[in-house]
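[Q] Does anyone have a clean structure-token version of this?
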Amino acid sequence: MKTLTKTDFHFPKQMSVYHGKVRDVYDINDELLVMVATDRISAFDVILPKGIPYKGQVLNQIAAKFLDATADVVPNWKVATPDPMVTVGLKAEGFKVETIIRGYLTGSAWREYAAGCREICGVKLPDGMKENQKFPEPIITPTTKADEGHDENISREEIIARGIVSEEDYKVMEDYTRKLFEIGTQMAADKGLILVDTKYEFGKREGKVILIDEIHTPDSSRYFYADTYEKLFLEGKPQRQLSKEFVRQWLIEHGFMGKAGQVVPDMSDEFIQSVSDRYIELYEHITGEKFVKAPEENLDDRIAKNVLDCLTTLSLV
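[A] Here you go.
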């Protein structure tokens, strides 16, 4: 199984490269970003030791589809997708926070709630809620955007008070977050899915707030199957879901939550294949299209050629 877990490209007019948890971002002439969605996978803010076949392609193609579908409502960074694993877009000054919007009480929010917490990121939660219960209205629970280590929950008030984001810009981010979630929710419903929660990242370019990075992918979002949601919820059973949460649950069951001293459990070939299959399953459900696997051989050469052709077309070579 071929995977792309590390890149070291040297594109024309390249100024720098940033290696994130999953994406490698190349700055071209301080104008454009070449974002390569690798096959790396992270959980609990830790990059796991093995890559997942086709994961980068799945993430990149889902994100591109949703960026195109929402561009008339929320301006975004995307310019082109020259390769199944690459998006080229406008460079923006990223804000140091992410907006997480939750339609249901699940995942880390549920774990905190079950432990007795009744306030998340300044948002008060009522007593008596159950796991996977729908909120009356979606709630926004921002986190800091850490360059290294763990992101941390933070309230709207603290973001503004500390000057991390101006009140004016944060209001735009909140508005865009709710609009994107509404569109994503409808697009998921059309395919028999529930968009449970997701996160967005924003930046500023030429004085305007724009959406950057991925959107509505299984790395940034959680989906439930709509047809079995109500029955499973009433029975108090786990939801059938398409997201990265099953990887987190597997790690938890094997004694790993990213804490000091914990060791990542061995990831067997069978487990890696099951993760790959899950990512492809989500792609096909959320897009309604058959996933076409791009050639695995010579990934680096293919990407380098496709990006070079794109930059030439954009007159940056």
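[Q] Thanks! Anything notable?
[A] Helices lie at 55-70, 107-114, 156-161, 167-190, 226-234, 245-253, 269-287, 299-313.
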